[in-house]
Design a protein that fits this description.
Layout (H helix, E strand, L loop, with lengths): L6 E10 L2 E10 L24 H5 L15 E7 L5 E7 L1 H4 L4 E6 L2 H18 L18 E2 L5 E7 L2 H10 L1 E6 L6 H4 L13 E8 L1 H7 L5 E9 L11 E5 L6 E5 L7 H9 L6 E4 L14 H14 L3 E4 L2 H7 L5 E10 L5 E11 L13 H4 L4 E9 L14 H19 L3 H8 L3 H14 L15 E12 L8 E6 L5 E4 L9 H13 L6 E4 L16 H28 L7 E3 L2 E4 L2 E4 H5 L7 E6 L9 E12 L5 E10 L7 H21 L4 E2 L4 E2 L17 E6 L17 H15 L10 H14 L1
Helix pairs in contact: 3-8, 7-8, 11-18, 14-15, 17-18
């Protein structure tokens, strides 16, 4: 009788409601593979060109958006034009008469509610700092009340996209407008219209000793108190949310989805189609980004399934760009009132935070203050968080949910306090950061950008164009999850395949899965074939919270390690050595002074080849990363225009699987931070309750002309031989660095993002009047 596998408990870091906590999980207690020293790899920790780069560059890579099936219909959604209204009349008769219209469904209120709730629940599980939307309850009269502009009212399926659009226009809907509120400042007032029956303010958490913290401020030599605000930001993925439901009336279906979780699709789709989950296959060949917004099939997926079930034909439902802005989620806004105090020597001794997460109908995401890097050294701290509800679509997770907002606020007030007591902002941070990894990273980045050139006094210098520098730090968990199964097969002809159901968001999953297997066998990346993005393959985690690499890479390593051992057992007799003495390198299998080419060695395999399965190994991953960013900007004090000049970011990552991809992640974090700092934000008409910029023509994002010189530095001082995700951490510190650089350049402290020219000019005007 086989003895059961021994288990052991280990502690890993997880982000729970915006707070990083250590949780205990159970794993197998067995010996397994190790990565070895980070600087001893043949392929890993090198710059590797993405294996799918030619496909994408040539337009060959197929996305859900590109899918064309025989007999396929096109779906389109009719949205509410009002922030809050009651549907009094809905007439679809004209739309039904249009040639080519095959199906129309009226959206029940519970479909919208459950869709929003499910999206939020998936975000909470996979990207666990986001908790928006869980409290949304169906109205008493489902389908009769809409609560945000963009809420789905009906959906159609037609033979062409153009006919579907015409059908949507032909549906006649009459509304009774109801009181709404879209501004947080108005929503918190006692007489504000109620967004939900339970009210507009929901207490979320309280931490610390309020009385002790309040008393500690009396001991401070310098105190700063201010409000910091960030707007709602949109994911702006190049591929919109969408799904292709291939159902033709039988007992099975195939779903092509733009999703961050291949295995979040079959169950939800099966329920809508009335099928067994095992009869639904999810395919994610390529996808055009998600940034935390694409878990589950969403409302659009539910509607596509309803239409497909009705007509027993494939239905493609891809959101339009305007749909995307109005009904596909967003990064929640924030309104934070912070107060901080320190001694003359720069020691922070008191910190108070009142944070309001602005998540529309949901709860929003908000990492608590004092933000993690500083939490360990502030003796007296108190924090309370509430969610403020408005008549806007519920927020979803977005790259490091809640963290950029928190980092922006605390890094701004840290800078303000440093200047108030007359300390160098860099030295002030080093004094108040407990972890010495930050000291190393701050000093390295400061040297790279030339910190000694900064303005000692913000706004100093002559001429209309003034330059300044700022810095900030950030942190994230980034560990893996154990629900990941990988298969590696070797054929007698030498073909090697690695297979797992995981999706590739565009972060390079295909490349590093090949690289890990190639290194294990002493082959090249081109010698390996990967199969991913299919729910018929080994189960894998959804991609959220920077957990994909730390979940998948250990499982790939384990599968390759097991396959290598099986191969060694087969080849050892041919070489006259023990299996443990067989080596794999440079395309050869060797031992005892003899060697075989890879293909010669594979001839020793049985006709069916060999297959090995791998599971997650906790020793091959780790949690906890650090980052430091410095920015240099130029501010034109005559126009208020800000031009980024240079950004430097240092990031530790444990074992870099692909340095090129990691540098790209860091660069991407800096670019998105520039957008948040200087340009991006939802603009809403308070009276009408509608978004004024629901498209790339009006929603300004960073462009090529705005890009600064960017230097992404991997901190090789981190020698942990373990994989850690860094997608989230890359975006956190750079936002505060840019904001602080603007202040250092022109002397104006902007506390409400984005930093538009009017805010700079108004700040300069105010300073001139009070001088």
């Amino acid at each position: 009788m086989q003895e059961p596998v021994k288990k052991k408990k280990i502690k890993v870091t997880r982000a729970v409601n915006g707070v990083e906590q250590e949780v205990e999980i159970e794993v197998d207690d067995v010996a397994g593979p190790e990565w070895g020293p980070n600087d001893k790899h043949a392929i890993l920790n090198k710059h590797i060109t993405r294996v799918d780069a030619p496909l994408k560059a040539c337009g060959i890579a197929e996305y859900s958006y590109d899918k064309r099936l025989p007999g396929m219909l096109y779906g389109r959604i009719l949205r509410s034009p009002h922030a809050h209204a009651r549907v009094t009349r809905l007439d679809i008769s004209a739309a039904e008469k249009i040639p080519g219209v095959r199906a129309i469904v009226i959206v029940p209120g519970e479909k919208v509610v459950e869709g929003a709730k499910k999206a939020s629940e998936e975000a909470d599980k996979k990207n666990p700092t986001e908790v928006g939307g869980k409290d949304i309850k169906p109205e008493r009269e489902p389908g009769k009340v809409v609560r945000f502009e963009g809420e789905p009212v009906a959906a159609v399926a037609a033979t062409t996209p153009e006919i579907a659009k015409d059908a949507i226009r032909a549906i006649r809907v009459e509304y009774e407008k109801l009181p709404h509120v879209v501004k947080a400042e108005e929503a918190v007032k006692p007489d504000a219209p109620k967004v939900l029956a339970e009210g507009n303010i929901e207490p979320r958490s309280k931490r610390g000793d309020q009385a002790k913290t309040t008393a500690a401020f009396a001991e401070c030599d310098a105190v700063v108190e201010a409000d910091y605000r960030t707007p709602i930001i949109h994911h702006s993925s190049l591929e919109t949310h969408g799904i292709v439901v291939d159902y033709r009336g039988g007992d099975s279906a195939t779903i092509y989805a733009s999703t961050q979780g291949t295995f979040t699709i079959p169950d939800e789709s099966a329920k809508e189609l009335g099928l067994a989950q095992s009869k639904v296959t999810a395919i994610v060949e390529h996808m055009g980004g998600g940034f935390g917004s694409k878990f589950g099939i969403g409302v659009e997926g539910k509607l596509a399934c309803m239409l497909a079930k009705q007509v027993k034909a494939p239905v493609k439902m891809m959101l339009t760009r305007e749909d995307e802005f109005l009904m596909a989620g967003n990064r929640s806004g924030s309104w934070q009132t912070l107060k901080i105090g320190a001694k003359k020597d720069g020691t922070i001794i008191a910190f108070h935070a009142a944070q309001r997460a602005l998540g529309g109908l949901g709860r929003g995401s908000q990492a608590g203050q004092p933000y993690s890097p500083y939490a360990g050294k502030i003796a007296n701290a108190y924090n309370e968080i509430v969610a403020v509800k408005t008549n806007e679509d519920a927020s979803r997770a977005m790259r490091a949910p809640g963290h950029p907002q928190a980092s922006f606020a605390i890094e701004s007030i840290i800078d303000e306090l440093a200047y108030k007591i007359g300390m160098d902002p860099l030295e002030f941070r080093i004094k108040n950061l407990k972890d010495e990894v930050y000291h190393r990273q701050l000093n390295r980045a400061a040297k790279e950008i030339g910190w000694e050139r900064r303005n000692r006094t913000p706004g100093a210098g002559s001429g209309p164009r003034k330059r300044g520098m700022g810095c900030a730090v950030g942190t994230w968990g980034g560990g893996g999850n154990k629900e990941c199964v990988v298969d590696v097969t070797i054929a007698r002809d030498g073909a090697v395949t690695v297979a797992v159901g995981s999706q590739d968001l565009g972060t390079g999953t295909r490349t590093y899965t090949r690289a890990i297997v190639a290194e294990e066998f002493g082959l090249q990346v081109k010698d390996i074939v990967e199969r991913i993005g299919d729910s018929r393959l080994g189960k894998a985690n959804a991609s959220g919270g920077s957990t994909t690499a730390a979940s998948l890479a250990p499982s790939v390593k384990d599968a390759a390690y097991n396959a290598r051992n099986m191969m060694a057992e087969r080849v050892a007799p041919l070489l006259g050595v023990k299996a443990a003495d067989v080596t794999f390198a440079n395309g050869k299998v060797a031992g005892g002074g003899k060697s075989l080419t890879w293909k010669q060695a594979c001839v020793a395999l049985p006709s069916a080849g060999l297959a090995a399965r791998g599971q997650w190994r906790p020793n091959l991953q780790a949690t906890g990363v650090h980052g430091a960013c410095f920015a240099e900007v130029e501010v034109d004090v005559e126009t208020g225009f800000v031009q980024p000049i240079k950004m430097v970011q240092v990031q530790d990552v444990g074992l870099p699987l692909n340095r090129l991809a990691l540098e790209s992640q860091i660069n991407g974090g800096m670019i998105q931070s520039l957008g948040m700092a200087l340009w991006e934000g939802r603009v809403t008409d308070n009276q009408l309750g509608v978004m004024l910029n629901p498209g790339f023509g009006d929603y300004k994002m960073p462009g090529t002309l705005e890009m600064p010189e960017m230097i992404a530095l991997i901190d090789d001082g981190d020698t942990r031989p373990a994989v850690i995700g860094v997608g989230e951490s890359a975006i956190i510190p750079s936002l505060g660095a840019v904001v602080n650089a603007v202040h250092n350049a022109c002397g104006v402290r902007v506390r409400e993002l984005p930093i538009t020219p009017d805010k700079i000019l108004m700040g300069l005007y105010t300073e001139a009047r009070t001088a």
